[in-house]
Amino acid sequence: MIRGSGMYVPPGIVTNDMLSRIMDTSDEWIVPRTGIRERRYVDPAQGSSTLGVLAAQAALENAGLTAKDIDFVIFATMTPDHYFPGNGGLLATALGMETTHALDIRMQCAGFLSGLQTADAFIRSGTYDRILLVGADVHSSLMPWPESVWDVLLGRTEGPCDPGWYAKATGMRDRAVLFGDAGGALVLEANDSGDGRGFLGFRMYTDGAHWQKLYVPGGGSANRPYMTGEMQDNLDTVPIVEGRQVFRLATQLMPAAVRDVLESAGATLDEVDLVLMHQANLRINEAVQKVLELPDERVFNNIQKYGNTTSATLPLVYDEARRAGRIQPGNLVCFTALGAGLHWGAALARV
After folding, report:
1. Statement: residue 44 has pLDDT above 90
2. 308 belongs to the catalytic site
3. Could you say which of 3.40.250.10, 2.60.40.3580, 3.40.47.10, 3.40.50.11030 is the CATH number of the domain covering 2-189?
4. pLDDT (tens digit, 9 = 90+) per residue, 239-257?
5. Are 301 and 283 in contact (CB under 8 A)?
6. 201: nearest Cα among 284, 258, 273, 152
């Protein structure tokens, strides 16, 4: 069951108008396509493990626990502080956890959902009683802009932006406007009370045939050498997102996964109090909502404020919905996500 939740977003707000300083875009271009009005960026040299630590501390406080009460850590991210080691050990050390074990998950936008299933399996097996699940990403680290471009974006200098970089940034605007930085966390624990609270089912799927629709072409062992300056110059370190294809797949596969998990649990959509979707694009979520014929009061979105924060989106929407009074004890909540791989699925929980 979910014992507590927490989130952290950095204070640095980047609006659509600010992005228009360094690329050919605008609020009028971004909002109709994505629903996003602003996102958060971290300070330089602040990695995803730091955001994860701050979110974890908030979740532990909400749960009324300390780090010493945690048996196991799962950290989901696509932007770890380092290629290795993973963020799990960094977070555990920062929280003062000396004897715990940690697992790192690299499943991008489906990472937190997979982490929920993994944590539930560990708890049901009796291996661990209480697990800290964290999702955090720093997408601003993927932006290849030099300091002079950052200065214009953030208003430290008046500009204008260097024409060459303005053209480069415009070439990646379909992706650059999507992403933000954030961390979220849940504390999950065994429930022997018999009150029915906990996860009632998961349905998870993978289809590697679609891997090129969401991927990063530069870097990795398929390249020789692993990383080059040319990859950076050609923007090959920036994710490829085939927006139309991803939209089509997400609006088909996510509703199907929701129906599958409900059927497996012997529940109906009418019984679900709230559906929480991965926040990749508000237009995708609106289409999924329409397919499932859900009224506005049974969905919750916050991509408008934070953009796509990948591994952090599900804990962010859960925590904000809880604090807004949209989630009450005993509610039936459905989670669903789709991400690179392709991986997708749904989870059903009595909270």
Report:
1. no
2. yes
3. 3.40.47.10
4. 999 999 999 999 999 999 9
5. no
6. 258
Block residue for tokens 């995708």: 284
- In the chain, which residue ranges form alpha helices assigned H by DSSP? 16-19, 27-34, 48-63, 87-94, 111-125, 147-153, 163-171, 173-176, 229-233, 243-265, 282-292, 303-306, 313-323
Domain boundaries, the chain: 2-189, 198-350
Q: Which of 109, 139, 161, 285 is catalytic?
A: 109
Taking only the tens place, the pLDDT of each residue in 45-78 is 899 999 999 999 999 999 999 999 999 999 999 9
pTM summary value:
0.97
- Catalytic one among 62, 87, 139, 278? 278
> From CA 79, how far away is CA 69, in angstroms rounded?
27
**Cβ within 8 Å of residue 341, ≥6 positions away:** 107, 108, 110, 206, 207, 208, 210, 211, 214
Q: Report the amino acid identity of residue 315.
A: P
The arithmetic mean of pLDDT across residues 276-290, rounded, is 98
Q: Strand 332-339 relative to strand 274-277: parallel, antiparallel, unpaired?
A: parallel
198-350 has which fold?
Peroxisomal Thiolase; Chain A, domain 1 (3.40.47)
Of 118, 120, 114, 135, the C-alpha closest to 311 is: 135
Give the mean model confidence (pLDDT) for residues 300-305. Answer: 98
Task: Tell me, yes or no, if the two domains 2-189 and 198-350 fold the same way.
Answer: yes
Q: Say whether 278 is catalytic.
A: yes
Residue type, 100: T
Mean pLDDT along residues 313-331: 98
% of the chain residues with pLDDT over 70:
100
pLDDT at 233: 85
Query: Confidence class of residue 348 from pLDDT cuts 50, 70 and 90?
Result: very high
139 included as an active-site residue: no
Annotated active-site residue in 62, 308, 334, 343: 308
Amino acid, single-letter form, for residue 337: A
Rounded mean pLDDT, 308-318: 98
